[in-house]
Amino acid sequence: MDLHYKQLFFLLLFLFHAPSVLAEPRALIHQPEVSLTEFRMGYHVDDSQSLTYADVRDLPFIETGNKTTLGTSARVTWFKVILENTSSVRQELYVHLPHAYHLKSVGFFEERDNELASSQNLDMDQAADDSLMYRGTAVYPLTLSAGEEATLYLRSHSFSHQWFAVDVFDHEASRRALIGINTDIALLVGMMLALVFYNGLLYFASSKKENIFYSFYLISGLVWIALSYGLIASAFNLYGTAVFKLNISLITMPIFLMLFMMAIFETRKFYPTEHRVLQGLLAVLIGVLAWGLFDISAALKPASTLAAIMMVVTFSVSISLYRKGNPLVKYFLVGHTFFVVFNGFAVLFYKGLVEPSYLNSHGVGIGIMLEALTLAFIISYRIKILEDIRASQDELKKQAATDPLTRLYNRRFFFSEADYLLELARNSHTPLTVVVIDIDHFKQVNDTHGHGVGDQVIVSIAQALKKFSRSKDLIARFGGEEFVMLLPETALEEATGCAERIRAAIENLRTTVEDSDIKCTISLGIAAVDVSNESIESALNRADKALYEAKNTGRNRICTHQSYAGNRTAPIVST
Questions:
Q1: End-to-end CA distance of the chain
Q2: What is the per-residue pLDDT across 495-525, written as a single tens digit (0 to 9) for each?
Q3: Is residue 5 part of a domain?
Q4: Residues belonging to the active site
Q5: Alpha-carbon distance values, 478 to 53, 345, 422, 492 (Å)
Q6: What's the predicted TM-score (pTM) here?
Q7: Of 395, 428, 448, the domain-final residue
Q8: Per-residue pLDDT tens digits for 131-155
């Protein structure tokens, strides 16, 4: 009785697995126009990597679609495609392997009436000049008469991940398929190149290291996209082991993303815990990079798992920074969410855990592009923040350097800037003259009209000083009703003419307050600076003496101190 149960059990088990093991799916050609992009076929994983056509033709094949992904454990896989022409016309067919560019080699074995009719092997290291290869797609031609069938065995030897696709076309459909490939990938790469150029300009403008890390992240991403999706093969007709080594960019890309995060969020300075976590992941990635430099094929085997770990760690760090109030991380989270989601699809695809689709197979490229756009926004937004801070600092500096009433420079700024102008005058051997100005009888204005009106008079005179001076002249309010001007590249005689224009303008100035006009005059003292060995303070003292002379001799006039030593002054009376 137990024997019957066992027999029944094994019979049920056989019947359960029979459809997938023994089924012989066929690609039926029943129309004159042929464009088969969805059909069933079989596959057999060659773990020994040494099976021949004669070995595999009698082995069981598992049914799958014409687009499949089997992960890293199926580096050598045989695919079986049965083509049957059920139409009434002879068909010239072209079997396309659109992802052949990422393989190490591919073999074609055409069987007719249980006999090997033709075989060809395509080694990707020599594929550039092979007639079977066109722009990254392997194209195998065959002809089927009406009612005839052929079995095609395809041996796919991948470098790391086994993802495979087969399409069948007639001549016209084949031509259209070959011409139209990779336009979407070219668009992605073009957008990333534009971002690289844009970020290069930002780096030269700001010299921030995050711009360098972001640029290398973009370059790594676009190299991998162009390589993985066939743009390099299509554009440059390059294949094989040497080109496959460019997959090292899949490892450098997260490295530069880690460095970018550390720089843009300043984790070393403000977030030591998160910084150590990122450093730990960075150390692992650098180790895998070193491994990849010696054996890229082996290093890529754990790449999908490592990518999943990287996404979890970076997302967790981002959440932590967001909870701690970093102002930029919310934008990073948006872009990184796109990256994590779409790369999650891709990881499942490359591990052979999900059915092939455009979204799954192109998940990495889509995720990189969306995150790259977000990172570009983050950089621009950070530059704006820094510019706002710089503008705020400049305003504070300006407030510290200027008189709040007149918006002229104050005494402290005058002396620091005057020393600089004096040094320039010494180096260029050009003259420099200082002018001291004081409002005549200003106390009477305050006593008669009040300090508010006195402030208006001071503002009016300050505006006149700016109006009748040059942009390179240094004008400052020293306090109360006293002003000082430093005139670069100006000799004593020229400075006297400038002072006279100012004196005359102030004499004719009227400050209107409550329907009354207030008139004031000024007295001026001038001294030429001995740029060879005199200080600004010494020249100011001499100009002060000339000012006192102007005050004592009647006001509303100019006096000059014409010697660098002694107390001689020469009044110039102007009325």
A1: 138
A2: 999 999 999 999 988 887 776 788 899 999 9
A3: no
A4: 481
A5: 99, 71, 19, 22
A6: 0.62
A7: 395
A8: 899 988 999 999 999 989 999 999 9
